[in-house]
Specification:
There is one protein chain. By secondary structure, this protein is α/β, with parallel strands linked by helices. Helices cover 36% and strands 24% of the residues. Strand 4, helix 6 and strand 5 form a beta-alpha-beta unit. The protein starts with 14 loop residues before the first helix and ends with a strand.
């Protein structure tokens, strides 16, 4: 959760969609900051309980050794990375999410490496990160500056993994309602591979795959620094 539309390269929006986008921006900003305590609950509801499964599905694709998660939120994936033995760094601009993630790590007896920062100005040296991970990132995914920064900090041949969109595909009544709600709010747009073209111009070799679950599917985008 947290994104409000497609990846980069979006077409102009109609007035109704712009109004929806404004509402979603406000809602997600509050949910990611002042109402961060409610984030997991809301995410579980709108995903029909699939939220954690979606996020954790990225783990098999991450092997480090030095991995940066941008927008770590409540810290669930970051915990998974630590347990996998990966030298993980978490970066997020929300102090509320930072507190949530820190408390989660303390309860588990782990020592997190958490940094408050901006995805458009990553506080890392060039070619110092092996992998970057983003799951359901916020609006910074729409900005080319974000991907220029990611390319800068990645080693040559390094990979960024982006999980931007999920679709609910189940046919049970509540699943249909959730799928409809995600469509009308722009949370589950029709997939068009052309939205990845700007990432190629930044200097990435781009590939993607669909990961299917029982009642949903997600798309995982792989960006390799060429």
């Amino acid at each position: 959760m947290g994104k409000t539309n497609n990846v980069v390269g979006l077409p102009p929006l109609s007035l109704p969609k712009r109004l929806v986008l404004i509402f979603l921006r406000t809602f997600f900003k509050l949910l990611y900051h002042q109402f961060a305590w409610a984030y997991d609950g809301v995410a579980s509801i709108v995903s029909i309980g699939a939220w954690q499964k979606w996020v954790q599905s990225v783990l098999p694709y991450v092997d480090g050794p030095r991995t940066l998660e941008i927008g770590y939120g409540p810290g669930h994936l970051l915990v998974g990375l630590y347990r996998k033995g990966i030298n993980a760094i978490g970066l997020d601009e929300s102090p509320q999410m930072g507190q949530l993630a820190k408390r989660r790590f303390v309860r588990l007896g782990l020592c997190p490496n958490l940094i408050r920062g901006d995805a458009e100005t990553l506080p890392f040296a060039a070619e110092s990160i092996h992998q970057v991970v983003m799951t359901f990132p916020a609006e910074y995914i729409l900005k080319s500056a974000t991907f220029s920064e990611i390319r800068r900090v990645l080693i040559n041949g390094g990979v960024a993994l982006v999980l931007p969109i999920a679709w609910i595909t189940g046919q049970k009544p509540w699943e249909r309602v959730a799928a409809w709600l995600n469509r009308v709010t722009g949370e589950a747009p029709v997939w068009d591979e052309r939205v990845l073209d700007p990432l190629k111009k930044v200097g990435f070799d781009v590939s993607w795959e669909m990961i299917n679950f029982t009642s949903s599917k997600i798309i995982l985008i792989r960006l390799q620094k060429s």
